[in-house]
Design goal:
By secondary structure, the chain is an alpha+beta fold. The protein has a domain of 140 residues: Cytidine Deaminase, domain 2 (3-Layer(aba) Sandwich). It is built from 6 helices and 6 strands; from the N terminus they run H-H-E-E-H-E-H-E-E-H-H-E. It is globular.
Length: 222
């Protein structure tokens, strides 16, 4: 059994610096207006700031409802973060309607998505997008297309991990590297930049003030 958003221990974790936080880019994500993408950038920066100040640069997650912009902060334990660490966030993950949530978290070693994260992404219909913010300020995102088939994507990953790369100790990592090369075929895409826009409601103002160790923050999607 895999754990929601659990990160296995990484090699060579790096400490978050103010310079790294300042380098977090504003990425134009599909279906989001410029103001929404700016908001996501601010939350990515906030994520690193919280990890730096309160979690020794280890993993921290923020789950965001992209309909009303409510959000839940999750403080990880070492090099892993689980939605179950915040029962409210976990309940939202399991009960929200399809494609209404964004989950963002940092990676201490700046690596891309793990097999665990991909399985969580596929297995929860409520998740529309997940983002990884490296402790160096890099940003990556996985976003579901309307053609996304969770069963097909999971089957493809499992075939790579348990058949093609079964004799490798890092079979999950190798499977993800190959899988991320054919993202469009499986109905989702990975993004690190670009310019796409759409009409959406404005995010709430003063949202950051709602954060504490395990609580709230707030968009509109589908």
């Amino acid at each position: 059994m895999y754990k929601d958003f659990e990160q296995k221990k990484r090699n060579r974790p790096i400490a978050i610096t103010d310079i790294a936080i300042s380098k977090v880019r504003c990425i134009q994500f599909q279906g989001f207006k410029a103001e929404h993408n700016k908001y996501i950038q601010e939350q990515h920066k906030l994520l690193l700031e919280i990890a730096k100040k309160y979690n020794e640069s280890n993993e921290v997650g923020i789950l965001i409802n992209i309909i009303d912009w409510s959000a839940w902060l999750i403080i990880g334990n070492g090099n892993m973060v689980e939605t179950k660490d915040n029962p409210d966030a976990y309940a939202v993950l399991k009960s929200s309607r399809k494609n209404t949530l964004l989950f963002m978290h940092n990676h201490p070693s700046t690596t891309t998505f793990s097999g665990t994260e991909f399985k969580t992404f596929c297995s929860n219909d409520s998740l529309y997008m997940i983002t990884v913010v490296g402790n160096d300020g890099s940003v990556r995102a996985l976003i579901k297309e309307s053609s996304f088939d969770a069963n097909e994507a999971l089957a493809y990953y499992n075939t790579l991990a348990t058949v093609k790369y079964k004799n490798y100790s890092n079979n999950g990592t190798l499977a993800m590297r190959e899988l991320l090369k054919i993202v469009m075929k499986l109905g989702y895409f990975i993004k690190t930049g670009g310019m796409i826009d759409d009409q959406q409601a404005s995010p709430a103002t003063g949202i950051n003030a709602n954060y504490n160790k395990k609580t709230s923050a707030g968009k509109k999607r589908r």
